[in-house]
Write a structure and sequence with these properties.
Blueprint: H1 3-22, H2 26-38, E1 45-52, E2 55-62, E3 76-78, H3 83-90, E4 94-96, E5 101-108, E6 111-119, H4 130-177, H5 186-198, H6 215-225, E7 233-237, H7 246-251, E8 252-253, E9 265-266, H8 268-271, E10 276-280, H9 282-285
Helix pairs in contact: 1-2, 1-4
């Protein structure tokens, strides 16, 4: 290689190095590499293959399609019977003059992870002298491909982790708000939806159901989801209150208000101020 060609080769390697540093996506990286490469080794079509198991995947491409060489991005190509497949399998470059192409392996840690293929409409476009420079270029591209693979895998894992985190946050939210309600049936899920819809409103809620069906659990869930969750949840079992004490229990009384009222009593309504008052078995209590 004469001094002029040597200088052009060094400039090419430097340009490709700069392209690798400044481009993160496959398409922008290979476009920058192709623009730098075209100045030194002309081509009509450039394809970068990524070796995956028994196939080659089109990692990136540049230039128009050549007759008989129809490729799309991410297109899979068999390693059997193709120049790129032979190059990857043998870890050696391959050149044809008449049906002009040159193909070099992307070597990383002693193995071929892909191939760079340059094609031309014009015969005799490539010479053996082009191969060493392209092999140096391919080493840089191989490092970029490996880094990009790692970057994409990290991005994939990060997206997966974020999705799992969102799911776990929903699970934690569900466990926190409905920690005592167990079930995955449609009816239970509809109940959860109803609780979540009503809790932020601040309206009075009537909870119906037979004794033992979990009305108090629903009341606690409503409280925990409401803006009042920082205050107390006050429960009153109305069925257990004697008729004559209901008013006193709910509203309180002043000292001496009636016989036996030896001290001021704070009613449940006052205790529940800013929080939630749960009147349990209110239907039974109303029968007194």
């Amino acid at each position: 290689m004469d001094a002029e060609n040597s200088a052009a080769g060094y400039r090419l390697l430097l340009e490709i190095n700069n392209a690798i540093i400044s481009n993160l996506t496959r398409e922008s990286l290979f476009r920058a590499i192709a623009e730098a490469l075209r100045k030194v080794v002309p081509f009509d079509r450039a394809i970068l293959y990524d070796a995956e198991n028994d196939v080659l995947r089109t990692f990136a491409l540049e230039g128009p399609e050549l007759p008989g060489h129809s490729h799309d991005l991410h297109h899979d190509v068999s390693r059997q019977g193709t120049a790129a497949g032979w190059v990857v399998d043998h870890g050696q470059s391959r050149l044809r003059r008449v049906r002009a192409y040159v193909c070099v392996p992307l070597m990383a840690r002693g193995r071929a992870i892909g191939a760079l293929l340059l094609q031309s409409f014009a015969p005799n476009r490539y010479a053996v002298e082009d191969v060493p420079l392209l092999e140096e270029v391919a080493k840089q591209i191989a490092l970029a491909v490996e880094n990009m693979r790692a970057f994409e895998e990290i991005a994939r894992l990060r997206a997966k982790l974020e999705e799992e985190n969102r799911y776990l946050q929903e699970e934690i939210k569900s466990d926190h708000n409905f920690e005592e309600i167990v079930g995955q049936s449609r009816a239970i899920k509809e109940l959860f939806k109803a609780i979540e819809a009503v809790a932020p409103v601040g309206a009075t809620v009537l909870i119906t159901g037979e004794t033992g069906t979990g009305k108090e659990l629903v009341a606690r869930a409503l409280h925990n989801l409401s803006p009042r969750r920082g205050k107390a949840l006050i429960k009153v079992n109305c069925a257990a209150l004697p008729a004559g004490l209901i008013e006193s229990e709910l509203f309180g009384h002043e000292k001496g208000a009636f016989t036996g009222a030896i001290a001021r009593k704070i009613g449940r309504f006052e205790l529940a101020h800013g929080g939630t008052l749960f009147l349990d078995e209110i239907a039974r209590g109303s029968h007194h």
